[in-house]
Design a protein that fits this description.
By secondary structure, the protein is α+β, with helices and mostly antiparallel strands. Helices cover 30% and strands 11% of the residues.
Length: 91
């Protein structure tokens, strides 16, 4: 396999484990894997698919890979330091 190997949408969908319809939808919305159009046919370069997948890795720690990790996700939609304390108004 070479870096410029072209995959059909069906092969790309199998590789990404998604439906061909999902690829169609992503392409129409301008997101998803970069694609190549040759004589009206759609192809995906394997190197672009692998780069797309690598760009969407999240969670875990990647030690020694030279890839910067993101900040942890905050799970609560409240300001830090509030502690969830409720103050009752004075009567």
């Amino acid at each position: 396999m070479t870096e410029t190997e072209l995959l059909t949408p069906k092969e790309c969908a199998q590789y990404r484990r998604c439906s061909v319809r999902k690829l169609d939808r992503e392409r129409a919305e301008g997101r998803g894997c970069p694609h190549v159009r040759i004589d009206g046919r759609i192809f995906y370069r394997r190197s672009d698919i692998e780069r797309f997948i690598s760009a969407h890795v999240c969670g875990g720690e990647l030690r020694g890979s030279g890839i910067a990790t993101e900040r942890p996700i905050r799970r609560h939609n409240r300001p830090r330091g509030s502690g969830g304390t409720v103050v009752e108004p004075s009567a």
